Amino acid sequence: MRLAVGVGALALAAVFLSSPAAATATASPGGGDPAPTPTATATVPVEERATFAYGKHYRQRMDIWWRKDGVTRPAVFVIHGGWWSGGDKKYMTEVTRSYFQLGYVVVNINYRLAQDAPWPAQRTDTLDAIATVRRHFAQFNLDPDRYALLGFSAGGHIAAAVGTYGDGVPGLRGVVGISPVVSPRTAYEDGDEGADHEQRKLRKATIALAGGCEPIECPRIWSSMEVPLHATQGDAPMLSVHSADEFVPPYQSEMLKQALNSVGVAMNIRAVPGFVHSSPLYREPGVAESVQSWIIARLAH
Questions:
Q1: For this UniProt entry, which residues form the secretion signal (predicted)?
Q2: What is the mean pLDDT of the chain?
Q3: Residue 289, Cβ neighbours under 10 Å: how many?
């Protein structure tokens, strides 16, 4: 497998390639998807991995793994965690590889962090990344109407927020959250005086996500961040996985399940004994396999 373009090569240009070689492009007037302008050709391998831009900010980058074998495949979008203020797609490389090996097109997303832009920038970036890839579906042998999201911790919140955006996101077949913070308001309240270190840290992270604004000062922003408030019958089914005793407890996802079930959308919650969070939880015995099985079932037809 060949890395076609490094992130550094894309720092000043949003690119989509018709070959694995470097390219430049001009962004659209509305700041949307750029027009691809290939500048070189190269021998085309069967398997390809490259980094693309979906916006002008240096964080608006995504790694796409695909096969140039002419077979149309569903996709999995991977969204990293990191308290909305850290983390990077590079830490999701092994997860990305695992879904590529299962036969999917895989898109591993970076997004603007809270210090770059407050909510809803993170949801907007993910929606833009999805829309950009779907517009270029033929280039990646991708079925634009069969894809799933897999998010970790803060990335699980973003994935769930995308899954409940509007009246349903076209083509989205399922959303998985590993330790997803689906209720930042609950995390804020849980992190009050007497909470443990991780809960207090998460409280501060939710405030930063809201642009430094507390719930009483910015109720509209906090309502936008609160995933259960946005459930509609057009939303995709969801799966959440938590450790039973972690600092993002299963009852956060229970709130979302109740909201989704009330409008006829299925949601499953798995609670694993212990207290590990996010990626370490995903590596617990049987967790990755159960998530993969759920995604396979959602993308089968």
A1: 1-23
A2: 88
A3: 9
